[in-house]
Amino acid sequence: MTWIYLNDRFVPHEEAVVSVFDHGFLYGDGVFETMRAYRGRILMLVEHLTRLERSASRLALQLPVPSEELGTLIQTAVDRNRLQDAYIRVTVSRGPGEIGLDPALCKTPTLVIIANPFRRYPDSFYTDGVSIAIVRTRRNLPEALPPEIKSLNFLNNILAKIEATAAGAYEGVMLNHREELTEGTTSNLFIVQNGRLRTPAPECGILEGITRGMVLRLAKELGLPCEEARLHVADLDTAEECFLTNTTHEVLPVTYVNGRPVGSGRPGPITGRLHASFLAGLDRFLGHF
């Protein structure tokens, strides 16, 4: 049996239901985080909770429990479901209320914690790499929707994903209104250019991923030159390597962009070195709250 935490208790998954009047369902009014557990311990838990709290704060949405208590509940969800390698999703919505946009219509936020077994990606993703496509859908304007809010409204990303799938690519990468590279639908983007690690800067309108931050830290520890910069499609054309990062993919090599090979068309040595360093250093970033 899978146990889901809903509002104030753990319930069997078939009993985990949310009101049709919940503003998360009606309007996408809410925030979420996805996390990974390795060997029963959660990766970068404090950093994920900090980002969740920041996202909620930007929406004037009060988390229903303090961060420390929420961290304990997340760990309990992993333990109660007897999981070692787990995928975790924490969702906080505005909660149920009368129909209308006014947040004051909702008195109590909805909290959901899901902990499921992690389903590993095919080995070929890492030995052969994946393909990406530059899509027509633009990243939301930062002035319209601040990129640091990890909100329940993912329509921008979904449209980009539809385009990427139609193009036969694994992931779609969006440009901003200045034609700069931003991020994938669920991932951050890195390239290696002239031996230098480069990734779109926050001011390009990206959500700064937790794994992205880990990779930048590891690169500095390894002595790899790296920078956050304003990148363009032409930079992908001259890149020796490319990879994506997120909580579930870790460090995922990209070997084709718009049907053209990146570098040799095989995962590159810097990508492999960073992924190996990520895995070797997991114990530093794991822990119970």
Please report the number of helical segments. 9
Residue windows where pLDDT falls under 50 for at least 5 positions: none
What is the averaged pLDDT score?
96
Q: Specify the overall morphology.
A: globular
Structural class: alpha+beta
Number of strands: 16
Description:
The structure is a single chain. It is built from nine helices and 16 strands. It is α+β, with helices and mostly antiparallel strands. Helix 6 (210-221) packs across helix 8. The longest helix has 14 residues, at 45-58. The radius of gyration is 19 Å and the shape is globular.
Features:
nine-stranded mixed sheet; globular; 9 helices; 289 residues; seven-stranded antiparallel sheet; 29% strand; alpha+beta; 16 strands
Q: What order do the helices and strands come in, and which of them pair?
A:
Layout: E1 3-6, E2 9-12, H1 23-27, E3 30-38, E4 41-43, H2 45-58, H3 67-80, E5 86-93, E6 110-117, H4 124-127, E7 130-134, H5 155-166, E8 171-175, E9 181-184, E10 188-193, E11 196-200, H6 210-221, E12 226-229, H7 233-237, E13 241-246, E14 250-257, E15 260-261, H8 269-280, H9 282-285, E16 286-287
Parallel strand pairs: 7-8, 7-14, 11-12
Antiparallel strand pairs: 1-2, 1-6, 3-4, 3-5, 4-16, 5-6, 8-9, 10-11, 10-13, 13-14, 14-15
Helix pairs in contact: 6-8
